[in-house]
Design goal:
The complex is a heterodimer of chains A (117) and B (111). Chain A has strands spanning 4-7, 10-13, 19-25, 30-38, 44-51, 57-58, 67-73, 76-81, 90-98, 106-108, 112-116. With 117 residues, chain A is an all-beta fold. In chain A, strands 2, 4, 5, 6, 9, 10 and 11 form a seven-stranded mixed β-sheet that branches. In chain A, strand 5 and strand 6 (57-58) form a beta hairpin. Chain B has 111 residues and is an all-beta fold. Chain B has no helices and eleven strands. The radius of gyration of chain B is 13 Å and the shape is globular. The termini of chain B are far apart. The mean pLDDT of chain B is 94. The chains are: A mainly beta (117), B mainly beta (111). Chain A binds chain B through residues 32, 34, 41-46, 49, 57, 59, 93, 97, 103-111, and chain B through 32, 34, 36, 41-46, 49, 89, 93, 96-104, 106.
């Protein structure tokens, strides 16, 4: 149980285009989903927290107009990188909290590697 | 906000030896401290966690200790095996709505 999927697993796009990444909780209802960014050999940096049906809460320094997050249902959250630039190239990982399970435990998706050329 | 520091950044041990990774946190309100193992290119996996009302927790070869007064917690891996080689992250949260991660420790177990 507690499986989180992410799609796509990798994507290459041209500078200036937008990319959408999906995060799904497959066997539980995720009241809260998190989006992280991870650079090579570095830690996970929390970008934003999203709760189903409400606006995402962004961490300081994260541009909400550039990284659009939509948590449309209890099983799906999307991250759209708008007008992508090479510096947006990174590993993006989502995670989800089970609203019915252990209070704070989060389950991670497999990640999406974004390369902007 | 919370600031989590993790040491060491790299650690090499001989197979069968123990490995210890330490984290400190700044927010005394933090009350949940998970540890994650991440293999290259893969997702972080929760390996053990501890809540602030507990001082120690053990699961087979893995244990975590928490010192609330000093605001630090440690991961202990005994009888290390090559498959324990990975990057380990600690994290802290006080609400479950924001997790703050340490900088990671790259553990190498030498056969």
């Amino acid at each position: 149980g507690a499986v989180v999927s992410q799609h796509p697993s990798w994507v290459i796009c041209k500078s200036g285009t937008s990319v959408k990444i999906e995060c799904r909780s497959l066997d539980f209802q995720a009241t809260t989903m998190f989006w992280y960014r991870q650079f090579p050999k570095q830690s996970l940096m929390l970008m934003a927290t999203s709760n189903e049906g409400s606006k995402a809460t962004y961490e300081q320094g994260v541009e909400k107009d550039k990284f659009l997050i939509n948590h449309a249902s209890l099983t799906l959250s999307t991250l759209t990188v708008t007008s992508a630039h090479p510096e947006d190239s990174s590993f993006y990982i989502c995670s989800a909290r089970d609203g019915q399970g252990a209070a704070y435990e989060q389950y991670f998706g497999p990640g999406t590697r974004l390369t902007v050329t | 906000g919370e600031n989590v520091e993790q040491h060491p950044s790299t650690l090499s041990v001989q197979e069968g030896d123990s490995a210890v990774i330490k984290c400190t946190y700044s927010d005394s309100a933090s009350n949940y401290f998970p540890w994650y193992k991440q293999e290259l290119g893969k997702r972080p996996q929760l390996i053990i966690d501890i809540r602030s009302n507990v001082g120690e927790k053990k699961d087979q070869r893995i244990a975590v200790t928490l010192n609330k007064t000093a605001k630090h917690f440690s991961l202990h891996i005994t009888e290390t095996q090559p498959e324990d080689s990975a990057v380990y992250f600690c994290a802290a949260t006080n609400t479950g709505n924001q997790f703050y991660f340490g900088t990671g420790t790259s553990l190498t177990v030498i056969p």
